[in-house]
Design goal:
single chain, alpha+beta, Nucleoside Triphosphate Pyrophosphohydrolase, five-stranded mixed sheet, 5 helices, 13 strands, about 25% helix, globular
Length: about 240
Amino acid sequence: MQIGDFLARGIWTEDRIEIEWRPELRRLTTPEIEVNIEREWTRLLSSGLEIFDGQLCRVTAYRASASGITLTAAPTTYREYRGTNKIDISDAYRANPLCVCAVVHTADDKLVLGHRGVSCGESGGLWHVPGGHVESGKHVAGDRVLPGLAMRDELEEELGIPPGAISEMRCVGLSRPEETLKPELLYYARVDLEFDALCPNHEHSVLEPVAATRAGCLNFLGTRAMVRSGRACLEACASLLP
């Protein structure tokens, strides 16, 4: 796969995001890579960071056009990601787990940005939008992966937003930032809750409301240290705002 804050950018409804599940397409490996996975995981377990070896979805190919985004995915794990995505190997050997994230637009015209806690397994101390990994045990149905379901699960888990309170959700891009090499689908979500009604979980040390305008987005982007995929998501969503 290519690398970049935007591999694709546009506005797509959920039905335009198709992900084929191909469990036989396992990543390649070598004994040296497996040793590195074990070494890195052992180091992380002793670091005090919040980590969990989840069952994830590895992106093996993608195609994007004005009509939609198509991905192919296969099984991987978070443990494999931590031991493969930061070393000098080809993509055939990397975990490349699929993620989702969303700029949330509340009923009182605020955008929701969160400051990640320092004990988070990744990007502690940086600002981000709600998001997480697409899990193969929860978000795969038959031969299809369901990223919209994963995004709804993350919004409920991180902000206490029930699926029924999401009035609109659109994909605005596909990112693969150099810092993680994780493919990430970027979303814009309108919800029927006001900012003060949100219930953040432990992943966010604080939530900040940002005016739902292009100027509000640009001001935040210019003054805060953000996760790269979160920056891309906020930048893409700014084009939808007045």
